[in-house]
Amino acid sequence: MPTIGFFLIGFILYSAFYSTFIFIRNSFFKSYFLPMLGFNFLLKFILATLPPFLEDDWARYIWEGNLILKRLSPYIYTPESFFTKQDLAVDLTNLLSIINHPDWTSIYSPIVLLFFSLSFPKTYIGVKILYILLEFFSLGYMLAILGRKWTVLFLFFPLYLKEVFWNALFEILCLLCFFTAIYTLKNKRTFFLGILSGFLILIKITAFPLVARLIAFVYNKRLYQTKIIFGFLVGIVSPMLLFSILTKDFSLDFGYKNLIQFGKQFEFNFFLKHSLVDHFWIGLLFLIFPSFLLLIRILVTEKRVLNIDFVFFLVSLALVVVLPVNNAWYFLIPLPFWIVSKKRTIVPLILLSTPQLSYLTFLNLGWGFSEVYAIPDNILYIQAVSYSICLIQLNRNYSFYFTLYPIYRT
Question: How far is Cα 201 from Cα 35, in angstroms, rounded to an integer?
Answer without folding.
Answer: 35
